[in-house]
Automatic annotation (TrEMBL):
InterPro entries xref list: Acetyltransf_C, Acetyltransf_C_sf, Lipid_A_LpxA, Trimer_LpxA-like_sf
CDD domains: LbH_UDP-GlcNAc_AT
Name used for this protein in its record: Acyl-[acyl-carrier-protein]--UDP-N-acetylglucosamine O-acyltransferase
GO cellular component terms attached to this protein's record: membrane
PANTHER family referenced in this protein's UniProt entry, alphabetically: ACYL-[ACYL-CARRIER-PROTEIN]--UDP-N-ACETYLGLUCOSAMINE O-ACYLTRANSFERASE, ACYL-[ACYL-CARRIER-PROTEIN]--UDP-N-ACETYLGLUCOSAMINE O-ACYLTRANSFERASE, MITOCHONDRIAL-RELATED
Domain UDP N-acetylglucosamine O-acyltransferase C-terminal: residue ranges: 176-254
Any GO molecular function: acyl-[acyl-carrier-protein]-UDP-N-acetylglucosamine O-acyltransferase activity
The entry's keywords: Acyltransferase, Lipid A biosynthesis, Lipid biosynthesis, Lipid metabolism, Transferase
NCBIfam families found in the cross-reference section: lipid_A_lpxA, PRK05289.1
Length: 269
């Protein structure tokens, strides 16, 4: 049985899961589906065709499923889907999709979204991600699993970020980031591999040595990048992470630039 505060407004048609708590002054629209065991603490807005997975906690003044900030949006019934076990802190905003972008914004399971972070229309965010305070995605971004985005960091629309990436605080990201990358800077550059994250994911020292060697050969040796890329392709079989990085590079649907490295910026320890 759900527990809905008398001051909350839950419109007819909304589906509220068992043991979910809807706190004071929340507004839940008629097309919302909220899973079991969720907590909307207070003053939360859930708008449009929005689905929230089981066990997600939403803190005060968050707005989920509100219309996309797109001048092309004409009120179409697009969607937002948020996974299970997420923590959505104060003033977080997540917009639903647009018809032109596929009609849906998705957020995976167990995400932690800190105060004031923003996920724009048609973004697709993976599992186990962390957004620090006011981290911001433009529309149509893709964020891989286990990625961390630092505070006051902004990603330009259509940017792709592979899994297990670390993006430092106060960065401005315009280019795609390979899986396992470490990125920093106002005009962000690839500054190495996310070694800390890789160790947390139980990648062994022996594997790290192979991946570091591949990274150096691809990003830090002489010659044109296209030539270096062809040179390292036979190394795909040396480690699954290498194969994943090469597949990510080849899958540039929009042919965005890759976030690149400079020798004097890179730390691989």
């Amino acid at each position: 049985m759900s527990n809905i505060d008398p001051s909350a407004r839950v419109e007819d048609g909304a589906v509220i899961g068992a043991d979910t708590v809807i706190g004071p002054y929340c507004i839940v629209g008629r097309d919302a589906v909220i899973g079991a065991g969720c907590r909307l603490l207070s003053h939360v807005i859930v708008d449009g065709h929005t689905t929230i997975g089981d066990g997600t906690t939403v803190h005060p003044f968050a707005s989920l499923g509100t219309p996309p900030q797109s001048i092309g949006y004409k009120g179409e019934p697009t969607k937002l889907v948020v996974g299970s076990g997420c923590t959505i802190r104060e003033n977080v905003t997540i917009n639903r999709g647009t018809v032109g972008g596929g009609g849906i914004t998705t957020v995976g399971d167990r995400g932690y979204f800190m105060i004031g972070s923003h996920i724009a229309h048609d973004c697709h965010v993976g599992n186990d991600v962390i957004f620090a305070n006011t981290a911001t995605l433009g529309g149509h971004c893709e964020i891989g699993d286990f990625t961390f985005i630092g505070g006051v960091t902004a990603l330009q629309q259509f940017t792709r970020v592979g899994p297990q990436v670390m993006i430092g605080g106060m960065s401005g990201l315009r280019d795609d980031v390979i899986p396992y990358g470490l990125v920093n800077g106002i005009y962000a550059r690839l500054s190495g591999l996310n070694i800390v994250g890789m160790r947390r994911r139980k990648i062994t020292k022996a594997r790290l040595a192979v991946i570091r060697s591949f990274f150096r050969e691809l990003f830090l040796t002489e010659g044109q990048f296209a030539e270096r890329l062809e040179r390292v392709r036979p190394r795909a079989g040396e480690d699954p992470a290498i194969a994943e990085i090469l597949a990510f590079i080849d899958d540039r649907k929009r042919r965005r630039r890759l976030c690149m490295a400079r020798n004097d910026d890179v730390v691989l320890d």
